[in-house]
Amino acid sequence: CKNWCVYSLINPNEIAWFWDPSRDCWTGNNTCHKIEKEKQFAIELKSKLCESPCAQPRKIEEISVELFTKKCENYSEDFNPQFHQATICDTSPVQTNQELQFALANFAFSACKNWCVYSLERPFDLAWIWVPNKKCWTESKWCLSLEVEIKYAIKLQQALCIPPTANVINSRKIQRPTPTVEDTGLWGDQKTQQDAIEMYKLFGGILLTSIVLLIIMQFLFPPESEELMREKELQEKKKQ
Q1: Running DSSP on this structure, what letter comes out for residue 110?
Q2: Which residue did the predictor score with more confidence, 131 or 200?
Q3: Around Cβ 51, how many Cβ atoms within 10 Å?
Q4: What is the DSSP string of 15-49?
Q5: What mean pLDDT is predicted for residues 174-188?
Q6: Which residues fall within 8 angstroms of residue 148, CB to CB, at 6 or more apart?
Q7: Exposed, middle or buried: residue 174 (CB in 10 Å: 0-12, 13-18, 19+)?
Q8: Per-residue confidence at 11, pLDDT binned at 50, 70, 90?
Q9: DSSP code, position 103
Q10: Alpha carbon distances (Å) from 110 to 61, 106, 144, 173
């Protein structure tokens, strides 16, 4: 337990990770391969384990309306969310677009009524939510707060024959970020993003109007000073 290297049980000769205490995560590290004793331990451990068969993932070229009829009952071109629309709303790198397409092709969502889809390469860090008015997908921090959905994506990732990588492996616990206007406005049957923004503008206008009225009232009816109040008290005492 004092060793800081962990080796892949799929390819221990080439893939290993080293614990980075400054970031609380594991990072791919070539130094671990120089520790021959530890590497041999991983190789022997691999030979003793029973390898479970994995399923071959679908290719992104298979995405179609017909594909999702196998997963979702009564699925059609008008179904929401439209899983066959494998398009990201904003400009994104080609790799990120391929991640979304790969996730959709392999049903990286637990139920057809769910509007969140998770990356099968980094389900802890990347998820998308369906934008019905634009018919596309956008990255969502809110989806990353759904622990049950993330666990489903992880199990799916483990069941598929996805080649391991030596990229940074995040070990942090599932975070629960505060939903943004974009997220809350797009989820389920709630208001759309534009409706949510308009609502915030309305409340902002009411607040601003209240502040202006308060300033005007203070100007027209200024509070009495302490000296004036004392003079009134003296006058009342004299009358008594």
Answers
A1: S
A2: 131
A3: 8
A4: -EEEEETTTTEEEE-SGGGG-HHHHHHHHHHHHHS
A5: 41
A6: 110
A7: exposed
A8: confident
A9: H
A10: 21, 11, 14, 20
Question: At 237, is the secondary structure helix, strand, or coil?
Answer: helix
Tokens of 178: 């505060």
Alpha carbon of 239 to those of 178, 207, 225, 229, 233: distances in Å? Answer: 64, 46, 22, 16, 10
Mean pLDDT of the chain: 78
Q: Which residues contact 72 (CB under 8 A, 6 or more apart)?
A: 79, 83, 112
Q: pLDDT (tens digit, 9 = 90+) per residue, 142-170?
A: 999 999 999 999 999 888 887 654 333 33
Question: Beta-carbon neighbour count of residue 79 at 10 Å?
Answer: 16
Residue 177 near residue 128 (C-beta atoms within 8 A): no
Distance CA 104, CA 92 (A): 17
Q: Nearest-CA neighbor of 145 among 115, 175, 123, 108?
A: 175
For residues 190-200, average pLDDT: 48
Q: Would you state the structure tokens that stand for residue 85, as one six-digit string?
A: 């629309």
> Which position has the token pair 């990356």?
119
**Tens-place pLDDT, residues 13-56:** 888 999 989 988 888 877 888 888 999 999 888 888 766 677 88
